[in-house]
Task: inverse folding
């Protein structure tokens, strides 16, 4: 029996196997931010332990940073203290730190790939659940807790039980207007938010092979929303072309050596998975959620389904009550109040290109407040260089500064109670985007269509008008 991609990468990093226990896994890259690292660094200080390999750790400010006037002192005391602590800890331990205003600053899962920190075959961890994003490069990447952040800082290792393996195949050609975000939301709707619990998922098939790296990152980002420990896609020419020349990527002879290894990173033809699922690309249309978890989603042209029986029905009805929706209602035409474009899920340049393609030549709806937040300063610069900023301004939109923003509402970007937000982020839990906020997860195309119409709109209708 051949090895899976996951087996190859995991087994290559096992330092020690503990009998009837977890594996001790070596970590190649450790990403830290201001929220989950202060207590970990304090633990090191109290124990008198240094960071073992400072060059393998990279720090950025992103989670509760403001997205306006970043040149001014941060007004929120908690946020200001966390940012100061991260800057101080990074300086004391010799860790690269990209704070507010730094040209490399941005969301941790955006700056890792764009700077060549994220590489095929690597193990990558961060005190953030959506670390699974980096699996798009054929890496094993997963989120860890604060005590584990301290463990990695001190030993460059972590103790983890090896997850089971799952492969999800999608073949065929995606329909008009269907994006990687729609693919991910479709998978979650089919598996539910617990359907991949205990597994590490490999995405395979022509749909993923045809995706850009940014699209693959979106899919892997959402892996944990169906309970998976992480997700990954085998590296290929698309991967290698994206990485080559980036600052922290191998150069010269080191590149040739790395490529020789990276080209072996794929599941063998006779590899066996603990679970394998297949879907047809033709069945996927632009998606939108209607409930309070990412699994409560469907094709945008559908109506809200009826609840099942038993306790799940009570949970279902509680979710609809929170959203103020009813069974059997259509989503199309529902009025919305906010649109959020951004996050580690959809805050890259490709997402802004998609958004701009819809709003170009149109105007923002008067009833809509739009927060457009690039995932990094590099994305922000690309928006300006490609003329996207001009398109946005002409349509009545403003660009904010990089950060996690309304994805988790740890800064001032909070959706008011009772208001509806079409959001390109990753979670629609109760209060996720602000106390009482009601979130509809969707792609940048769906978000753009809502932003110019003021209601939930099928983006294909606007795209067809543009092509006519």
Result:
């Amino acid at each position: 029996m051949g090895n899976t991609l996951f087996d190859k990468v995991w087994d290559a990093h096992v330092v020690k196997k503990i009998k009837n226990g977890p594996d001790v896994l070596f970590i190649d890259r450790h990403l830290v931010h201001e929220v989950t690292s202060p207590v970990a660094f304090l633990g090191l200080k109290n124990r008198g332990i240094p960071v073992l390999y400072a060059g393998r750790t990279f720090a950025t400010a992103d989670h509760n940073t403001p997205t306006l006037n970043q040149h001014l002192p941060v007004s929120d005391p908690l946020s200001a203290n966390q940012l100061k602590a991260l800057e101080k800890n990074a300086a004391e331990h010799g860790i690269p730190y990209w704070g507010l205003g730094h040209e490399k600053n941005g969301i941790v899962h955006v700056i890792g790939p764009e700077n060549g920190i994220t590489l095929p075959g690597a193990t990558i961890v961060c005190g953030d659940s959506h670390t699974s994003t980096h699996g798009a490069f054929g890496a094993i990447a997963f989120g860890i807790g604060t005590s584990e952040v301290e463990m990695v800082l001190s030993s460059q290792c972590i103790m983890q039980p090896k997850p089971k393996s799952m492969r999800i195949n999608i073949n065929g050609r995606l329909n008009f207007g269907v994006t990687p975000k729609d693919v991910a939301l479709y998978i979650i709707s089919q598996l539910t938010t617990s359907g991949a619990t205990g597994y590490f998922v490999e995405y395979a098939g022509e749909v993923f092979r045809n995706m850009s790296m940014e699209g693959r990152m979106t899919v892997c980002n959402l892996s944990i929303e169906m309970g998976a420990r992480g997700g990954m896609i085998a590296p290929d020419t698309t991967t290698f072309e994206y990485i080559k020349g980036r600052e922290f990527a191998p150069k010269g002879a080191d590149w040739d050596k790395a490529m020789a290894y990276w080209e072996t990173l794929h599941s063998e033809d006779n590899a066996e998975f603990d679970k394998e699922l297949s879907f047809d690309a033709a069945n996927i249309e632009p998606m939108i959620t209607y409930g309070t978890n990412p699994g409560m989603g469907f094709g945008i042209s559908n109506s809200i389904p009826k609840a099942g029986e038993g306790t799940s029905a009570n949970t279902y009805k509680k979710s609809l009550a929170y959203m103020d929706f009813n069974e059997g209602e259509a989503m199309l035409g529902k009025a919305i109040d906010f649109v959020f474009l951004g996050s580690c899920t959809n805050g890259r340049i490709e997402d802004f290109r998609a958004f701009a393609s819809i709003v170009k030549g149109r105007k923002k709806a008067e009833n809509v407040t739009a927060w457009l937040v690039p995932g990094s300063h590099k994305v922000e610069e690309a928006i300006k260089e490609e003329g996207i900023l001009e398109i946005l301004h002409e349509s009545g939109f403003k660009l904010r500064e990089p950060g996690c923003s309304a994805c988790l509402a740890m800064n001032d970007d909070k959706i008011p109670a009772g208001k509806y937000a079409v959001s390109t982020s990753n979670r629609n839990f109760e209060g996720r985007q602000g106390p009482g906020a009601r979130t509809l997860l969707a792609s940048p195309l769906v978000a753009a269509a809502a932003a110019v119409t003021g209601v939930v709109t099928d983006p294909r209708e606007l795209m067809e008008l543009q092509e006519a």
